[in-house]
Specification:
180 residues; mainly alpha; two-stranded antiparallel sheet; 8 helices; globular
């Protein structure tokens, strides 16, 4: 499954017509994006979980946009959907007991660059690809009300980036965060 997800992500990102996308893909290949888990003990807490989660969020976001809006360019859909959780690359370390057994939480969180969830994802992507303002907003604020600063910005965000609601919903649907 990891290879299929890897190939599909590379195919989708390769379709983006933006300077630096090849360097971004090389960065993912050279780091553990394709083998990282997506969380310590919740959604995607397995090898390759981050890549699988990212691809599923992109697909769900694309589906929701086609159903409700359709105005966001495909490149922006790919970048925001696939890259929204780049902050998770390399931050989950395997937990092992001294006897070699795996505890209930298979991973622990250790972030060498703790600058914030959406902020870090936006920062990492922008090291390779120039983001549009809307892409920056989507990645930065994709956590919605789970981000403590969202409330003070939500009215303005809803006006200038209504697609944000759909990215947040896609992330929640894929993560099982809606309790469905």
């Amino acid at each position: 499954m990891c290879q299929e997800v890897r190939k599909e992500i590379i195919k989708e990102l390769s379709a983006v017509q933006r300077e630096g996308i090849d360097q971004l893909i090389n960065h993912l290949e050279g780091n553990n994006f394709f083998t990282s888990p997506a969380s310590t003990k919740f959604h995607g807490n397995y090898v390759g979980g981050l890549a699988a989660h990212s691809l599923m969020v992109y697909k769900e976001f694309d589906f929701l946009l086609k159903r409700y809006s359709g105005t966001l360019e495909q490149d922006s859909r790919r970048i925001a959907g696939i890259c929204h959780d780049f902050c998770k690359i390399g931050v989950y370390q395997k937990n092992e007991l001294k006897n070699g057994r795996i505890p209930a939480n298979p991973y622990h969180f250790d972030d060498p660059l703790p600058i914030g969830h959406g902020e870090k994802s936006m920062y990492l992507v922008s090291q390779y690809v120039k983001l549009t303002p809307k892409e920056a907003l989507l990645i930065r604020w994709h956590m919605g009300s789970y981000d403590p600063n969202y409330e003070i910005n939500q009215d303005k965000l809803k006006k200038i980036c209504p697609e944000l609601c759909l990215l947040h919903c896609a992330d929640q649907l894929v993560s099982g965060g809606l309790g469905l």
